[in-house]
Amino acid sequence: MTIKSLAIIGTGVMGMGIAQIAAQAGIDVLLFDAKAGAAEEGRQSLKATLEKLAAKGKFTDKQLQATLSNLTVIEDIAKIAEVDVVIEAIIENLEIKQQLFKQLESLVTAETILATNTSSLAVTAIASVCEYPERVAGFHFFNPVPLMKIVEVIPGLSTDHRIVETLTDLATRMGHLGVVAKDTPGFIVNHGGRAFGTEALKILGDGVATVEDIDRILREGAGFRMGPFELMDLTGIDVSHPVMESIYNQYYFEPRYRPHPLTRQMLIGKKLGRKVGEGFYHYAENKKQESQKATANTNQQSPYKTDCDTSNISVWIGADLAADKQQLVDYLNTKDIAIDDNDKPNPDSLILLAIYGEDTTNAAIRYQVNPQQSVAIDMLTDLSKHRTLMPSIVTEDRFVAQAYALFGRNNKFAKSSNDAVDATLITESTGFVAQRVVAMVINLGCDMAMQGIATPKDIDNAIKLGLGYPYGPISWGDELGASRVLLILQRIYALTGDPRYRPSPWLQRRAKLGISLFTQQSNY
Q1: Strand, coil or helix: what is 377?
Q2: Could you count the other beta carbons within 10 Å of the beta carbon of residue 417?
Q3: How many CB atoms lie within 10 A of CB 309?
Q4: Spatial distance between the Cα atoms of 255 and 293, rounded to a whole number of angstroms
Q5: Is the pLDDT of residue 297 over 80?
Q6: Which active-site residues does the annotation give?
Q7: CA–CA separation, 489 vs 416, rounded Å?
Q8: pLDDT tens, 391-440?
Q9: 69: Cβ–Cβ under 8 A, 6 or more apart, which residues?
Q10: 355 Cβ partners below 8 Å, 6+ apart?
Q11: Average of pLDDT values for 197-214?
Q12: With the C-alpha atoms ordered 108, 110, 113, 119, is the resulting torsion angle positive or negative?
């Protein structure tokens, strides 16, 4: 079915964003809103935006006029009768949406597709009140629609496969990637995003690091555009916490989605983030204000960041992976640091442990070395951008100071400005900050693939585009190595007993076989 016309019901930000890309694709768009004057207001606002873009040379005046000519405001909803598709973009309330879809069915032809832009409600539930539920599907865009080039196409239990194909083709025509998702809580993107914030909150609750340090590690070391607490402040705790609770409840208390009491308290206390001036951070004139501790970190005023005796430092290295040990040896050689290559470290050597999914105490015991000399380093992240160091609870201050002198910003051994890379000291944690968060992101993506929520490729593309991650979870697992991700999760699960860390069978099988996480089993 070739779509020539569509109607948008609800002309708020999302509705007008969808209207814009449809009109730009040459589709006739009818705009309706139950609030008198809202549709015309939406069109005028969009017209002003498009005129500014045209003035900047984003497109020609001819293209501007063609787009505007495709947008028609209607005050009588009955005028949608002959359109090919109706896209609903109203309030997230099941009862109200069901009432609207019953009304739409009474107005349109039997061939008209009815699509909902719902982000959290079951498409099957919305369609359940319809006489012809087979023509109802989810068509979930992301804000801002023109920039977020992804749309989830969600069939309900009764949706005709031809409707799915038509909407996927329509997404492509409008310049977006259409990914087909099963009608499950959170679909792909909101489901796949659960690991990032919930694990960061768990790390904060465990006392591993501060809000600022967790954000910094994940931003600079792991490559996320924003730290999880910066992101929650931006979206608002009143938005993010209810979503966490909703998906956790809809999945019948699956531990992987477990929210944290802290955001519930913040919601009750109205510490909602940027919009109210206070959340995880404080804001003045909508700008984040650095805490005194964060400023101190930036100025390198920690006791371990002052001068220490770096003469005659020697380093003994224990590494889970041979490649990590070689990388550390090469780094230390460029600084002219002596390597202690004895089977057992000398009493005065700094013991550097490159470990995965483990705290420094347990690693030192496993390597049969002295925990008082030991500092662990995270080799999962890019050391050219950030370093994370983890002393044990009994590591002597002199060894912590030596480790920071070797790896911290403006360290004594920096040979150029390129060596001025920040380092963060964290308290003991079962797995480093980046290891825990990234492994959970990948594991959740693998579990979604196992559940058949979408194809591995669609899961990967949707989460990368929809959430702005540096990689999709499946390709990230392949990039880091599935066996390394599995090792992190296995050790954390073994040490904590917390089922949120249990490795997905999808990940386990492919890691043990040494094959890509994208590998799907043939249907027999």
Answers
A1: strand
A2: 7
A3: 10
A4: 33
A5: no
A6: 119, 140, 152, 190
A7: 37
A8: 999 999 999 999 999 998 755 555 555 556 889 999 999 999 999 999 99
A9: none
A10: 318, 319, 320, 363, 376
A11: 98
A12: positive
